[in-house]
Amino acid sequence: MNALKFYGKQDLRYEKAVLPVIEQVDDVLIQVKVAGICGSDLSRYAKLGPYVKGMIWGHEFSGEVVETGPAVTHVQVGDKVAACPTFYCGKCESCKKGQFSQCAELTVIGARHPGAFAEFVRLPGENVIPLPVSIDMETAACIEPAAVVAHGFYRTAMQPGAEVAVMGCGNIGLLAVQWAKVWGASQVVAIDIDPKKLDIATQVGADVGIHSLESSAYEQLMDLTHGKGVDVAIESAGSPITSAQVFALVKKGGQVVFMGIPYEHVQVERFYFEKIVRNELTVLGSWNAISALFPGKEWTSTLQFMKTGQIDVKPLISHRMSLREGPEVFEKMINREGRYGKVLLYPEI
Known about the structure:
Blueprint: E1 2-8, E2 11-16, E3 27-36, H1 39-48, E4 55-56, E5 60-68, E6 80-83, E7 86-87, H2 93-96, E8 107-108, E9 120-124, E10 128-130, H3 137-141, H4 143-155, E11 163-167, H5 171-182, E12 187-192, H6 195-203, E13 208-211, H7 217-224, E14 230-235, H8 240-245, E15 250-258, H9 270-278, E16 282-285, H10 297-307, E17 317-322, H11 326-334, E18 342-346
Parallel strand pairs: 11-12, 11-14, 12-13, 14-15, 15-16, 17-18
Antiparallel strand pairs: 1-2, 1-4, 3-5, 3-9, 3-18, 5-6, 6-10, 7-8
């Protein structure tokens, strides 16, 4: 089969790969229809390189079942599916508590197991999720990042009527805007330095957009909230600057949720750091998208609200490309050659 193999920083190759086969009684072989490029893929491509040299990459996808092991009963050949790409060990202390997202050996396909930037991928049956007929292949390829954001909201104590700020309107931030509304937010404030991203944020549900190059996000938000701040702030930009600034956005006793990863050192000025202590903030990290019962409520909730249209990924999609164009588009994206939202790759074109 054809696949994208990751050899090193900025070294992604479209090559032939061994077709996966059923090995365990609970295996499912899936023909990949659509695979999405994740923001973490871009950071690893540009800065870190692969976990395993030459590994087939990619973890966001949808597809069609082509073969199952004899123990698999919940899907059959021909079913349209998405899949949770994450593996947990089941043996560590966190797993024994049912806290799978904190597993000591947590990993995803594309890291140490062959991934979804390929024509076919194999996963255990428990990872494979049959799709309702109302969810198309493009939407299904975005279930995983939507579930990642849902996981972060489940970490909070957010109540209906809360005011929420989302700092960074990339794909995760735009999904966070929508999830905030699902959670019952009375007002969602989107913050970004790109006015076009703010336009999309408004399109998907943000009540107010703050362009933080015009003046500081803190000053504009304080004006908007009469000096109080919001109940919950989501850091989804993953930049060192916003990772510090976000502490100033919430009111006393508020919550800050980190969904972005800076991949650089974060220097926090005293003004921002003191907000944690003086305002008695709750600071939450959010990692991955799984919980008990595996793969968890994040996935069932995502399916539910995609069916109702309250989680809509279509406005996020900017490019639809063939899998063979993968190496080229990764280079263009990290070099900022053009404007990119969610990029979807298609092995069959």
